[in-house]
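Morning run. Coffee first, then this:
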Amino acid sequence: MKVESGWGWMFLLLAILFELSGTTFMKLSAGFSKLWPSVWMFVLYGCSFTLLNFALSYMNVGIAYAIWSGVGIVLITVVGFVLFKESINLNQVFWMSLIVIGVIGLKTSGSVH
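And here it is:
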């Protein structure tokens, strides 16, 4: 068994950032009606899944995927609010704070592969 290492967390962080970028370009592609944002979306998602795959060499799939998706949800909500002027309400903030608490709990759980 491999213990989670800095490499796993680095790959996971990069996977999250590429997923965030891919989702941003998904919005910019306007339903695939704009070529270059659509192309970038596929490239960035490909990078994200590749890095997530590398992270899984060091981490449990459930932990890695929960963190990848949970952090991605929170970050893309912030991007939507800041870049795309999408609304967010207190109820959404509450539920996303539970996601953050869950991610912190998973990070500190000390799981091994």
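Helices lie at 6-28, 35-55, 61-83, 90-107. Good start to the day.
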